[in-house]
């Protein structure tokens, strides 16, 4: 393996002349095997961190080094991002490094601007603009990846981005697009970066699947082009606004939102472009969407675009609950995931519902169709949109639901669930096509116990399929059943209705 540490040390050595900095940076990232990308990026991040801590390095050398290393390391970083998003083997541990790259370089570029404003040295105009655009890009990427983790961005993340944008405004290039990297396909401006991040936040991603959040983020690269960010409210609605003096995310414009720090944009053009795509989606996936490479089928794209059109509407499109919830403060025992829940309801062992972690779940509110909970534990890997959840409380029967919303905050993770029904029953399923296979466990909620007035039959995904015949066993009795529509897939199981063909002897 290449000795990255020695090379980085050489890069930062006081004895290395400024003319040798770029050459050393080139060696650092030249012809790297993909298997060594992660190791290389870790050392590059350490190098940038040491540059940030070095108070003796000249501004000229600092800028030259950072821009060049960022140029060459961007391809490595992008590959690690793709590997992580596609859950490539061994990529689970990449996340801290992926985020650290953006964080350290954003801080590094901020230091460069601070030194420049102090008058210690000069920066060429093109370098000055590139520093600001890249710094803002890296900061907005941190916010976008917060959405992927269902994590509410801290105010300092927005504030750091606002510093970059106000610098660009004062310098007169906030609307001027540039190539982020030499091999970038399209130019981008500071204005577009801020609008893009704002529209992603306003998409209310806390109840979207990971692949939907990725798709919205990619889609906004198309929709947010040439959308002006003005100091006065535009005439066309819907209108959204940033307050650059406050470390807050954007919000729909309300009466009284005025002042020199407010920046407004109309999403009319964005929603118009979205409407054009929705029209094309009636028949096919438009070429612009296909080029994004997202893992969505045509029907999924159509559903997502319709969801965005509502949320980006004149009133801000705040998702409305199906029924009003009442406050309800109590602890709960919770189990997550189809396999675990199915086993527990089948053996009727609800006492094992995270009994050693009962204090980690709190109920906030409840209605006839949903429930809001707070998880105050640290391990949230089991939480996923569309995953089955079983909730036991002192005052309610055993409730079965689907996770619909996740939002991580400092005081815990907020989890919103749709209640399917109460008192679920565990049943066994046999597939006649696999006579030697052990029975599968499924979950059944009768019509009287359902919150939607329909029975729920949840089973492993590999067993589902219209017209498929199975043998269902419950309470010592067996029946031959035939699956039929409607059929619905959740994150970890499938729901299907069925006809009973006959009773088995």
Structural summary, described in words:
It is built from 13 helices and 18 strands. The longest helix is centred in the N-terminal third of the chain and has 27 residues, at 59-85. The radius of gyration is 27 Å and the shape is elongated. By secondary structure, it is of the alpha+beta class.
What distinguishing features does this structure have?
39% helix, 13 helices, alpha+beta, seven-stranded antiparallel sheet, 505 residues, six-stranded antiparallel barrel, elongated
Compact overview of the structure:
By secondary structure, this protein is of the alpha+beta class. It has 13 helices and 18 strands.
Give the C-alpha Rg.
27 Å
Q: Could you give the order of strands across the largest sheet?
A: 6-8-9-12-11-10-7
Strand content range: 15-25%
Give the termini distance in whole angstroms. 67 Å
Helix/strand-derived category reads alpha+beta
Low-confidence runs = none
Number of strands: 18
Structure annotation, total helices: 13
- Considering DSSP H and I runs of 4 or more, what fraction of the residues is helical? 25-40%
């Amino acid at each position: 393996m290449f000795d990255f540490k020695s090379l980085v040390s050489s890069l930062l050595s006081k004895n290395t002349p400024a003319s040798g900095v770029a050459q050393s940076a080139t060696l650092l990232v030249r012809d790297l095997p993909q298997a060594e990308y992660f190791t290389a990026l870790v050392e590059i991040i350490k190098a940038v961190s040491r540059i940030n801590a070095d108070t003796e390095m000249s501004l000229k050398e600092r800028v030259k080094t950072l821009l060049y290393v960022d140029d060459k390391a961007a391809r490595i970083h992008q590959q690690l991002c793709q590997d992580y998003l596609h859950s490539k083997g061994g990529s689970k541990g990449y996340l801290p490094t992926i985020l650290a790259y953006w964080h350290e370089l954003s801080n590094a570029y901020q230091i460069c601007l601070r030194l420049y404003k102090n008058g210690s040295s000069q920066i060429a105009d093109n370098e000055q603009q590139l520093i600001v655009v890249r710094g803002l890009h890296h900061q907005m990427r941190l916010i976008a990846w917060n959405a992927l983790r269902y994590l509410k961005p801290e105010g300092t993340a927005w504030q750091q981005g606002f510093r970059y944008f106000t610098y660009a405004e004062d310098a007169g290039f906030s609307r001027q697009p540039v190539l982020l990297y030499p091999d970038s396909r399209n130019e981008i401006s500071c204005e577009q970066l801020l609008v893009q991040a704002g529209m992603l936040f306003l998409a209310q991603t806390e109840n979207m699947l990971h692949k939907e959040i990725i798709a919205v983020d990619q889609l906004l690269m198309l929709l947010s082009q040439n959308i002006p960010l003005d100091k006065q409210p535009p005439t066309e609605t819907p209108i959204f606004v940033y307050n650059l003096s406050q470390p807050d995310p954007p919000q729909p414009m309300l009466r009284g939102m005025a002042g020199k720090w407010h920046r407004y944009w109309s999403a009319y053009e964005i929603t118009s472009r979205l409407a054009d795509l929705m029209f094309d989606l009636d028949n096919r996936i438009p070429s612009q969407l296909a080029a994004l490479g997202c893992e969505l089928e045509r029907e999924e794209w159509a559903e997502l675009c319709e969801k965005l059109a509502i949320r980006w509407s004149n009133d801000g499109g705040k998702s409305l609950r199906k029924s009003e919830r009442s406050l309800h403060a109590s602890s709960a025992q919770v189990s997550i995931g189809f396999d675990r829940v199915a086993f527990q309801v089948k053996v009727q062992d609800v006492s094992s519902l995270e009994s050693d972690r009962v204090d980690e779940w709190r109920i906030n509110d409840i209605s006839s169709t949903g429930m809001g909970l707070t998880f105050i534990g640290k391990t949230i890997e089991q939480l996923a949109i569309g995953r089955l959840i079983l909730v036991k409380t002192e005052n309610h029967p055993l409730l079965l639901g689907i996770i619909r919303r996740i939002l991580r905050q400092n005081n815990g993770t907020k989890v919103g669930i749709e209640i399917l029904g109460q008192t679920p029953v565990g049943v066994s399923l046999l597939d006649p096509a696999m006579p030697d296979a052990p029975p599968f466990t499924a979950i059944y909620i009768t019509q009287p116990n359902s919150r939607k007035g329909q029975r729920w039959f949840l089973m492993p995904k590999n067993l589902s399929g219209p017209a498929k015949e199975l043998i269902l066993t419950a309470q010592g009795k067996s029946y031959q059943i035939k699956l039929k529509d409607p059929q619905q897939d959740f994150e970890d199981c499938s729901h299907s209705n069925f006809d009973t063909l006959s009773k088995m002897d």
